[in-house]
Amino acid sequence: MEEESMDYPDRGSTQRSLSTPSSLPTTTRVHVTALDGLVNVNSIFTIAVFVGLSFTSPGQQSLDPRPSCSAGVGEARKLLLFEVMSFSFFLFSSLVAQGLKLAINIINSKDANEAFKAHISTRVLRGGMLASAVGSVMGCLFLMLSMVNVIQIRLGLLSCGSRATLEAVVVLVVLVSSALLVYVSTTIYAFLH
Fold first, then answer.
1. What is the pTM of this model?
2. pLDDT by residue (tens digit) across 150-192?
3. For residue 119, what are the β-bridge partners?
4. Most buried of 121, 177, 183, 193, CB within 10 angstroms?
């Protein structure tokens, strides 16, 4: 509490607050930086979604020479579905994060030196950041599923037992799942502490 008052020596009437009586106002410089990072990462993932969409044209031949191992229309449909779902979650996450940033900037003090500080309800801020994080996690899961379909379209179906397909899918699933586990764990830790 002492540190908060050092950040805001003047808590006069020029600063508006969204805080409720049960939640204390908090500074938001770190939150704005985190929201910026989340929007930037979501933008990169959205580009990956559009790259994946380029693989949805029917009739593409895989690199596996066996005709029975080429992906059919079903895999292309799944790819398109997973890409749209991924894009939707990334867009949701980015819009929630941008909305929070907009709220913070509107609530700001009029002091130009405090451009990234505002008094905002902890519940609103934490809830919005949690919603944005959940959107990013879901977007990553659907992007991973779509990439599995891209691998099957380009390298051959998993059911054919192609070593290249299996290796690519295993590496993708292990690395993405591990990264998501770290992301979710650190997010939960941050919310509990």
1. 0.72
2. 888 888 888 888 898 999 999 999 999 999 999 999 988 887 8
3. 17
4. 121
The token pair that represents 167 in the structure block? 């290796």
Query: Could you tell me if 164 and 129 are in contact, meaning their C-beta atoms sit under 8 angstroms apart?
Result: no
Query: Whose structure tokens read 């579905």?
Result: 81
Measured distance CA(41)–CA(66) in Å, rounded = 38
Q: If DSSP codes are grouped into helix, strand and coil, which group holds residue 17? A: strand
CB 93 within 8 A of CB 42: yes
Residue tagged 């505002």 (tokens): 118
Using the structure block, give the residue that is written with the tokens 């992301």.
Answer: 183
- Average pLDDT of the chain is 75
